[in-house]
Amino acid sequence: MIWRDEYVSKLCGYKEAASIVESGDRFLTAPGVCEPSTAMMDAIADRGHELEDVQYISFLQCHPYKIYQPAYRKTFRLMSCFYSSLTMHLHREGSSTYLPVQGSSVGHIVKERQVIDPRRVGLITQVSPPDDNGYVSLGLDLYYTPDLIAQSDWVIGEINPNMPKTYGDSLRHVSQFDKFVETDEPLFSPSIPEPTEVHKKIAENLVSLLRDRDCLQIGIGAVPSQVSRLILESGLKDLGIHSEMSPIGIRQLVEKGIVTGSYKKTHPGKIVLAFALGDRELYDFLGNNPMVEFYSASYCNSIPLLARENNLVAVNGAIEVDLVGTICSESFGDDIRSGTGGQLDFVIGAYFSEGGRAIHILPSITSDGKISRIEPYLSEGARVTVPRQYDQYIVTEWGIANLTALDEKERALALIKIAHPDYRDELLRVAKKRFKF
Predict the structure, then answer these.
(1) Averaged pLDDT, 151-168
(2) In CA terms, which of 7, 22, 191, 196 is 20 to 30 Å from 416?
(3) Do 14 and 62 have their domain in common?
(4) What's the Cα-to-Cα distance from 379 to each of 59, 388, 414, rounded to whole Å?
């Protein structure tokens, strides 16, 4: 068959596509903006009464699927590599388990699970309509889809005309899919909060650490959005971007000639990403843009690749930091709120990058003002996202602590200086006891 005939033969409704799932399967959905529609996933959930022992692994969930409801726990075992605000309650309730994994090794971990628990593996992802040669684009999220397509026993592609073609490792032929369904829903777009005065001060401190020709890794949120605004006014030039997640304000930085990628050692002149999450303006800029290349996290987040880049600046958030610089970015005690993602990949990459800097940002206190986020010890049960030996810069609204090459006592004193003033005396008291000075 020519590809058009093959494509038509695989095109079906949601109910037929869902019939590909069998008892004992393990399947994954693409993360974020390429996550399948609610209609697709609910069609699988509706088969819960006829299926048994199905594992569902997800990452950065954006849709309120039926499958997350308690009624479906008998059939579907939920696992997550990274929770979102939509699903973090599932871990707290015990309805979902967390699969510890770095961004660079998601595909490897799924492959290794086959050794201890062999199952048929499936993947569902949104893709662009096929081009004239029968290739669809994996679009705006390649986090693990290229790796999983190669490993899967079955693959469902949900054709969405709103999903743009992207460059990099994005194209896959229709022959690599078992089923196609169609949707026309808008691409998911999260709301981004306006920065507070605390966020603005953190962003100001952060931008003071940037230099011409830096290659940035940063995401979205209140602080990153303010960082982009400040960079536009900073006079910085010839910046590059190699980031797991697309930064906010990227279009304006390119149009102003600030982001050129001219001095990048890897992919010179290109913006390298694993996934995008933002607004329609961002998606329109990233799609069909030969300056932007998408790759799986196994490549984009590869630590040897990152370490070869000069002046790699990795910017990541933190929930809490202890007095020796150990960072937790994914849990409140035992309550996992997100996951490791690519944070440690980029921190280590920046650590070994010539001229690189790993920067962690956080407000000095919780939003209610009752807890210092620089603490004597991490909370009981807190997951360590970044071990202290890779920690470099910690930034709060009160300043910058450069922990590189400091001993533990010096680290504690540097961190206390950027803690909230209301908590400094107590932190100093504990530090004197802990470090014997």
Answers:
(1) 98
(2) 196
(3) yes
(4) 25, 15, 20
Q: Are residues 88 and 150 in the same domain?
A: yes
Instruction: Kindly state whether residues 142 and 214 are assigned to the same domain.
Output: no
How many whole angstroms separate alpha carbon 344 and alpha carbon 100?
Answer: 12
Q: Is the pLDDT of residue 239 over 80?
A: yes
Residues 95-127 as b/e (b if ≥16 CB within 10 A, e otherwise) read bbebbebbbbbbbeebeebeeeeebbbbbbbbb
Return d(Cα 270, Cα 264) in angstroms, integer: 8
- Which residue in this structure is represented by tokens 């196994």? 298
33 part of a folded domain: yes
Residue the block writes with tokens 């306006």: 194
At residue 227, does pLDDT exceed 80?
yes
Out of 158, 244, 320, 397, the active site residue is 244
Nearest C-alpha neighbor of 82 from the set 110, 109, 60, 55:
60
Condensed to tens digits (0 to 9), the pLDDT of residues 301-350 reads 999 999 999 999 999 999 999 999 999 999 999 999 999 999 999 999 99
pLDDT for the residue numbered 191:
87
Whether the per-residue pLDDT at 1 is higher than 80: the answer is no
d(C-alpha 286, C-alpha 337), whole Å: 28
Would residue 191 count as lying in a domain? Answer: no
Q: How many independent structural domains does the chain possess?
A: 2
pLDDT tens, 162-176? 999 999 999 999 999
Q: d(Cα 133, Cα 200) in Å, to the nearest integer?
A: 48
Beta carbons of 304 and 358 less than 8 angstroms apart: no
Q: Rounded to the nearest 5°, which phi and psi values hold at 111?
A: -65, -40
Indicate the SS3 state at residue 167: strand
244 in catalytic set: yes
Give residue 66's domain range.
3-182
pTM higher than the cut 0.85: yes
Written as six digits, the tokens of 365 are 């206190």
